[in-house]
Design goal:
The protein is an all-alpha fold and about 325 residues long. It has one domain. Helices cover about 75% and strands about 0% of the residues. The protein contains 13 helices and no strands. It starts with 5 loop residues before the first helix and ends with a helix.
């Protein structure tokens, strides 16, 4: 009887996680056709707060909630807030496959941002991979066409801000308490989006509130599967599994939203995924990158609606 190796088990866990994330994004897209992303995120954060409360209660480390790196923490918090609103808006107005293709540029942007922020040295091979990947983004965006709109700009903004938040975690994560980094983006979403909510609020029937609760629950469940994946398998095995979301985007887009990815989206997405995969493999070599910023980002863009996966993993280690 064949034995499932830890790497295979981790890959399966990751595939399940990203299938759940994709279903999460279907609910975001459905609700986004009727409600502002501000309203969806605000109520999603409310449903997610009990998780953070349990983490705060169980934190065994002494200390307060004042950040040691105030400005970096604030910049990361603002980046996560912008990522959430931008990503939710992009899912609402763009085809699923196109949104994922643009968000998949994050590994390229993380590698690029790691140069000034982490002092990362990027050689000719990773540099070329970044250029090729960004060319793939341009293919998806087709800037000479008439289809470029606010949704594309929002998806790009989400990719950039999510990448910035990831790199900042790599810079200050060893000094800051994980609880501080977990709490601040969610608190910012609650306060800032709560202040904006009266300007965009539309009454929600109970079934739509239930969908928002499902968004929060699916995000949590998917995060737990990702954590299990990283416990079992090497990061280089788990990280590329995010690209399975493109398959789900094609399936859900066709079955639910009557979307069919066009040839330019598929070509551009293939270029972006190939470049991102190459960067992941290069970082896993150990001698190419001293920071491994892409491998340590744990793949999912940070929206501030749920705790970041890498911080949940780190907090587990801190409390053991």
């Amino acid at each position: 009887m064949p034995i499932i190796t830890p790497n295979v088990r981790g890959a399966i866990m990751a595939l399940i996680a990203f299938a759940i994330y994709s279903t999460h994004d279907v609910f975001v897209k459905f609700l986004g056709a009727q409600y502002s992303p501000i309203q969806i995120i605000f109520f999603s954060v409310i449903f997610s707060f009990p998780l953070v409360a349990m983490m705060l209660i169980g934190d065994r480390n002494d200390g307060n909630l004042r950040p040691r790196h105030l400005w970096w923490t604030m910049l990361r918090t603002v980046s996560a807030l912008i990522t959430g609103v931008s990503a939710f808006y992009a899912f609402s107005v763009l085809p699923l496959a196109q949104t994922y293709a643009i968000l998949f540029a994050a590994p390229l942007l993380i590698t690029l941002l790691a140069i000034p922020i982490l002092g990362e040295k990027v050689g000719i091979r990773r540099g070329l991979a970044i250029i090729v990947g960004l060319a793939g983004v341009m293919i998806v965006l087709r800037p000479t066409g008439a289809e470029l709109g606010l949704g594309h700009a929002a998806a790009l903004m989400a990719a950039v801000c999510s990448s910035l938040a990831s790199v900042i975690v790599r810079k200050i994560g060893h000094d800051e308490r994980s609880v501080v980094l977990l709490l601040f983006p969610m608190l910012a979403n609650f306060l800032v989006l709560g202040a904006a909510l009266p300007f965009v609020y539309k009454p929600m029937p109970i079934e739509h509130l239930g969908m928002v609760a499902i968004i929060a629950a699916f995000g949590l469940v998917a995060s737990l599967f990702i954590i299990s994946a990283y416990r079992s398998a090497e990061a280089v095995i788990v990280a590329p599994m995010q690209y399975s979301q493109m398959i789900w985007a094609a399936i859900f887009g066709f079955l639910i939203f009557n979307e069919t990815p066009d040839s330019l989206t598929l070509i551009g997405a293939s270029v972006i995924m190939a470049s991102g995969l190459y960067i992941v493999l290069r970082e896993s070599g150990g001698k190419v990158s001293k920071n491994s910023p892409v491998l340590e980002s744990h793949t999912r863009h940070e929206t501030g609606t749920l705790p970041r996966i890498s911080l949940m993993l780190r907090r587990e280690k801190d409390t053991k």
